[in-house]
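lol forgot to send this yesterday, sorry. struct tokens for the thing we talked abt
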């Protein structure tokens, strides 16, 4: 292995982790967002948060499956 290959390998590792964290953060922020003008009902907020977290979890699982398929 030459130096260029090693640098590319390390850069890919860091870039993949950074992009993954950014996507996760974006999904989490989108799941927490509340529509403007909506009254603050604690029960509705809890259900909305739970639904958002579940959808974010499903999206993360789909990303993992996509990465596994991409490796093959």
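and heres what i got for the seq, position by position
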């Amino acid at each position: 292995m030459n130096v260029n290959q090693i640098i590319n390998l390390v850069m890919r590792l860091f870039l993949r982790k950074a992009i993954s964290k950014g996507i996760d953060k974006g999904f989490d922020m989108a799941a927490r967002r509340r529509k403007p003008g909506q009254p603050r009902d604690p029960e509705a907020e809890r259900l909305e948060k739970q639904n958002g977290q579940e959808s974010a979890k499903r999206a993360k699982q789909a990303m993992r499956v996509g990465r596994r398929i991409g490796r093959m």
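The CA atoms of residues 56 and 62 lie 10 Å apart. anyway ping me if u want another try
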